[in-house]
Specification:
Elements: H1 7-31, H2 48-64, H3 69-86, H4 88-109, H5 129-150
Length: about 150
């Protein structure tokens, strides 16, 4: 049985895995700490969402043809996903950061910094444009390598 029919899917899944795992050494070199949680967290370098949709889109293009309707669908899906990662989700993370600062400040002003009245929000949700671009490049490379190895 050939894996060629499944190459776009396999490429996307491998791209997610590689992008998530590569966040650990990148975090180490930028912050000088090993944080294993980076492998399952959102945000950061590179974007696993971008890696996945770029790998999927590239795989679909190579399998079905770059002029096919399936490629067009995958491409539009990928662009929307990457735009969302660098836009809406990034801004939601910025808002969460500001709300967390307000929450901490209110707790300090009310002399109640032992226990916050509201839970802190997750701040690392989206990506900077360079993180989205790096994820996309990673996904394309993974898809091309798999195609060369198995197709």
């Amino acid at each position: 049985m050939s894996i060629t029919p499944y190459l776009p899917l396999i490429a996307a899944l491998i791209a997610i895995l590689v992008a998530q795992l590569v966040k650990i050494p990148i975090n180490f070199f930028t912050h000088l700490e090993i944080d294993w949680r980076r492998a399952i967290s959102t945000g950061g370098m590179p974007s696993s969402h971008s890696a996945a949709v770029a790998a999927l889109t590239t795989g679909v293009g190579m399998k079905e043809g770059f002029s096919s309707s399936l490629f067009a669908i995958a491409f539009v899906f990928g662009v929307i996903t990457m735009y969302d990662a660098a836009g809406v989700r990034r801004h939601a993370g910025t808002h969460a950061s500001l709300l967390n600062r307000i929450t901490r400040r209110l707790a300090i002003e009310q002399n109640d910094n032992q226990k916050l009245k509201y839970p802190l929000l997750k701040e690392m949700l989206g990506h900077r444009p360079i993180e989205v671009l790096a994820g996309a490049v990673l996904g394309i490379i993974i898809s091309l390598l798999l195609w060369l190895a198995f197709a």
